[in-house]
Give the backbone structure.
Amino acid sequence: MVDSVGFFLSVNGNKKMNLLRILNFIATHPLNGSGASFGVTDNEVHKIITSFGFHPISYEPFSRVVSPLESYGLGGNTIYVKDIVSTQRRVTDSESVCIRTANNLEL
């Protein structure tokens, strides 16, 4: 998982690029204008991520459906994967997990 790509671009440069080459997915990445303080726009971050073969997707956890997106989610987190078909297979074949919140709410 990679977070704060604007920060990585500013501080790590090529190290971040090497990391993107070996990853198969980026769990979430916030594209909400926060890269501006590092001189990077959301669109630039999206172009860099997709240049390494990543595709933005939406994921519906209750129905376990992965769907490709035309672009990144505006104002929120975006999931990027390299292989949409294997990602769909992985979420379909995985066991369900019950998550309990601090208020004992089950998700």
In short: Strands lie at 25-31, 55-60, 65-68, 76-81. Residues 5-93 form one domain.
